[in-house]
Amino acid sequence: MTHARSDSTRRPLAVFDLDGTLADTGHRQHFLERRPRDWAGFFAAAPQDPPLERGVALALESAEECEVVYLTGRPERCRADTLAWLADQGLPDGKLWMRGDQDRRPARTTKLEVLRRIARGRTVRMLVDDDELVCEEARRAGFAVVRADWAAPSEELKDAQERTGRT
Fold it and tell me: What is the residue-level pLDDT of the chain in tens, covering all 167 positions?
């Protein structure tokens, strides 16, 4: 007996970052500007992130042809808040890939590792991310990339993504 593959396994994946791509983190940047940085405060404020309309629209549009999944540098301990936020914004249901709570590697390393794992069994149509170094690494590895350039840039967030491996 053969088993037909479900539609969801045949559909390509659209992989979306959260912070700076779907979620506007501007209101919580002040937690990263102080020394030492207040990571607990930064992540505790995430449920109040306003959506970035261009990112949300692209995710909804992508869901017409793709299965949408989420790949974030947020730590695993933020899973419940993150899933609630995604649902509150009306974003498509999809698997949420998160950083381990103790993983401090740069976002370009952790995200590319997960992208390669995802791509072993599925076609990845595109990665949508605001981090230019993540985008460069993904392009170099052969992935189609959409650079999310619709949020106000934050040097503190960029440093957190790349140097301190926090988001």
Answer: 433 344 445 899 999 999 999 999 999 999 988 899 898 999 999 999 999 999 999 999 999 999 999 999 999 999 999 999 999 999 999 999 999 999 989 999 999 999 999 999 899 999 999 999 999 999 999 999 999 999 877 666 656 656 555 55
Question: In whole angstroms, what is the distance from residue 50 CA to residue 119 CA?
Answer: 30
Cβ atoms of 56 and 20 within 8 Å: the answer is: no
CA distance 133 to 108: 6
Give the integer Cα–Cα distance in Å for 145 and 51. Answer: 21
In which order are the strands placed within the sheet that holds 124-129? 96-99, 67-75, 13-16, 124-129, 145-147
Decide yes or no: CATH 3.40.50.1000 for domain 7-162.
yes
With a threshold of 0.70, does the pTM exceed it?
yes
